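Q: Could you write out the predicted structure for this multi-component system? I'm mainly interested in how the pieces pack against one another.
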Amino acid sequence: MKTPAVRALGILIAASAAAVAAPDPNWLDHDRDRPQPALVDPGTFSSQEQPGRPPSDAVVLFDGRDISQWVAMDGSPTKWVVKNGLMECVPGSGYVRTLESFGDCQLHVEWASPTPPHGDSQGRGNSGVFFGYDRYECQVLDSYQNKSYADGSAAAIYGQYPPLVNVMLPPGQWEVYDIIWTAPRFDEDGKLLKKAHETVFHNGVLVQNNVALTGPTGWIGRAPYKAHPERLPIALQDHGNPVRFRNIWVRELGNPRHKEFMLPDALLATYAGDYGQDPRNTVHVRRLADGLLTMNLGGADIVLHAMSMTRFYCPTTDVQCEFNFSGPKKEMDVSVGDEHVMRMERLEP
Ligand code: MG
């Protein structure tokens, strides 16, 4: 173990080099005090007949029965259907997204295009796996003997990077994506610090090797990056084809302090408002984009992220607030660390 001074220097070096992967300077080579990696049961691989078992530390997003982790993009219940152990896109019902938000992660998704196939080019078995809510698409398409533009084929980073090879199975068979997602980073002023990066294995074959995204993906034209939270929902596209999904799980990387959620728009709308007993001393809770709230407290506007359906936390100070709307009164409790600071009632607009 190193001395505190050396450790502090190490932290400084690590902070200045945060964007570059390098051995942690806080530990000596072969340091016997260094914590052991956590034990994880790796689960099992899937076959065409049967989905595998996720690793023991994964968040299971779809297990073949329970669709509760998925909602429409506004957070209302999805119209996608579950049947026979799979989840199917209902054309025209819109994208689905996770209720929970994820930053850097490993995502496993299995999907099957409709059989017999209908349509051609981008019209055959089109869906997509999106990170950053609806911003960054890894294409899902029936690319089996179906020619389309290369940067729109299966496992393309849409409009930016074709897959290195085409490893599609015939329509109706289960395709497997294993994706490593590194979210883009922005500074407090919204300036891009680091681009998003994505690695994709399709049916176990490397097809995207840590490519740097130019910005959000889109049809015709490449939009520039625009600042957004590091952690956001993962979404699946409705492109008018009844594409099926099974065995979806994610492992978030980097040990975040709290789980994070993008709550339904309708629920966020009820939380926004003015709180307090005294109109001269009112706390204003307002909505921001991407499911965030902001609250004026102690002379500052602090940004709040949902850590449950009722509780929010601030990533930069140790402030949390809890909305208690289940009783006759609509109340908000504010705490700093372990200390309960105040309870305020919502003022009717
Ligand atoms: Mg698509």
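A: Regarding packing and overall arrangement: Residues 126-128, 137, 139-140, 237, 239 surround magnesium ion (CB under 6 Å).
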